[in-house]
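Running co-folding for beta-D-glucopyranose.
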Amino acid sequence: MAATHTIGIDLGGTNIKGGVCDADLRLVAQHAIPTEAERGVEHVLTRMAGLVDELRRRANLRRDEIAGVGVGAPGPMSHAEGIIHSAPNLPGWVKVPLRDRLTRLTTMTVVLENDANAAAFGEYAAGAGQGVRDMVMLTLGTGIGGGIVLDGKLWRGRFDNAGEIGHMVIVPDGRPCPCGQRGCLERYASANAVAERLREAVQAGESSVLQALVTAGTPFDARDVVAALERGDRLAARIWDETCAYLALSVVNIQHLLNPELVVFAGGLINAGARLLDPIGRHFERLSWKIAPDAPRIAFATLGTDAGTIGAAALARGG
Ligand code: BGC
């Protein structure tokens, strides 16, 4: 029988998500396991290979029915060589030849892609970007990833790292980033950065309903910041509004660089719903030019956390 299905793997700092897709990109099986990143690269690679096997069994498919495995992984990488250069949010992941290692472990054809590229391609093929030729997606999670689809094709650039939108510099000489630069968008508007900025403001003397958590050193995240602003917390409201302004500013820059029809936001932060989308829209309106009718539509991803696996499965067919 012909190889009809592909497997998509989405490698994250906390979980490894996987899915099996049929030729129409319908998910026929799914499974996720903890990454256990603290146990090192080799351990994670072995877990990924185990997940591939588990997915195939869950989908009730023989090995020869799987055309290939697509892996979306965080960090700048060489898609052509299948090597992760360095993942800013996965400690120790430096120069990892993921494609070849996983090919050996699974004896299947493996394609390596940036996680946000894979998710963007997923949304293009089966989500918010259906019917659109040119779109850009930003994933707002632990880090900020980006993916560019131009004329229906994923745009990787000469060195495979086009769309590293989280590392566009939004504040000159701003907050340091693990990538080595300063002022990266990711250091202001990722889910982590939002909580971190509020924590720092409280430590610098500003008051907030989250003060007790800051003083006790209790971890909190962007969800708590949104909950605080809903309770009328002025600091949380300011930090959140600034976050939306940074994101709107990046949409303005993306508009002028690529003139896409659609800019999609994805990732944990979009759970804030209209609290995120409306102020981004307002700031975009305020910050963008009015001399040409070329503003992109700004929308949320529709595939939720499945975009990465569906996109990786789609890319395993070539994309
Ligand atoms: C990395 C990107 C990745 C994003 C989301 C960023 O720090 O540089 O490659 O797509 O995090 O994981």
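Result summary
The domain at 131-302 is CATH 3.30.420.40 (Nucleotidyltransferase; domain 5).
The longest helix spans residues 234-258.
Job closed.
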